[in-house]
Amino acid sequence: MLNVDEIQKIIPHRPPFLLVDRIDELEPGVHGKGRKCVTMDEPYFVGHFPGKAVMPGVIILEALAQTGAVVMLSQEKNAGKIVYFGGMDKVKFRRQVVPGDLIILDVEIIKNRGNFGVGSAVAYVEDEVAVEAIFTFALQ
After folding, report:
1. Residues 6+ apart with CB under 8 A from 80
2. Whether the predicted model's global pTM rises above the 0.90 cut
3. So what's the pLDDT on residue 126?
4. Which residues of the chain have pLDDT under 50?
């Protein structure tokens, strides 16, 4: 398990854009499971949407990507690098995420060749799929 301080030693993201609170499972270069506790204090809730706070889907995708970045950058050979999005495919938004929800961020690296790879990502809230996607990435 990694706490937020340990996560910040691996990936360069910082508040308010650090979107992973804890890593519960980690197999470097292979798999990771993290969590994000969604609070009303998140800066995007000011405008998304007034009177009906809903976490933007792209922010959930970013939380999944940051979890994947922890998976990749926790490998000694990748320490100090940055992981960039290459693309996203098969993105499905299945459930709204609102303040008070706990998002479980599950990422599996399904292909990794040199500095490029593919990950399969699913975000859950209370055992319900909220978001799923396949993403490509590059390490630099």
Report:
1. 73
2. yes
3. 96
4. none
* Contact indicator for 109, 83 with CB cutoff of 8 Å: no
Check if the beta carbon of residue 126 is closer than 8 Å to that of residue 85. no
Where in the chain are the domains? 4-139
Show the tokens assigned to 7.
């996560």
- CATH number of the structural domain 4-139: 3.10.129.10
Q: Which residues are catalytic?
A: 48
Would you give the DSSP letter of residue 17? S
Give pLDDT tens digits for 70-101.
Answer: 999 999 999 999 999 999 999 999 999 999 99
Judge contact between 97 and 53, C-beta under 8 A: no
* Tokens 């490029």, residue located: 116
